[in-house]
Amino acid sequence: MGNNETGRAGEDVVCDFLADRGWTVLARNWRYSGGGLRGELDVIARAPDGMLAIVEVKTRSGTAFGTGFDAVTPRKVAQLRALTSRWLAETEGAFAQVRIDVASVFTPPGGPVTLEYRAGVA
């Protein structure tokens, strides 16, 4: 499985996880490029209580590069915040609370898929 397929599979796992808990996925793979800002928001979802979560999904099939959480650096968090502001500016929905979550999905060859989810990392 290539990197894009692995990433898509991880996002599918996360979207199913959220849907099973009553969340509504509003967008996937939202991309922006302009004004010196460029990037993608993997999953944008609304909780049953109205909380908006921007979910950064990191999928790994091995441990050579650490866990998915290891890849979410302060620089990445700053980019996610800026992209979130941009998405909110372009969206008509009103959200009282917004947070950034990280989901680490592990898909070892021949092994079970595991998901670890951390809410409110930023």
TrEMBL record:
Official protein name in the record: UPF0102 protein KFZ73_08920
Protein origin, superkingdom: Bacteria
Species classification: Bacteria, Bacillati, Actinomycetota, Actinomycetes, Mycobacteriales
Coiled-coil residue spans: none
Gene3D superfamilies associated with the record: 3.40.1350.10
One Pfam assignment: UPF0102
GO molecular function, one term: nucleic acid binding
InterPro entries: Restrct_endonuc-II-like, tRNA_endonuc-like_dom_sf, UPF0102_YraN-like
Similarity comment: family membership: Belongs to the UPF0102 family.
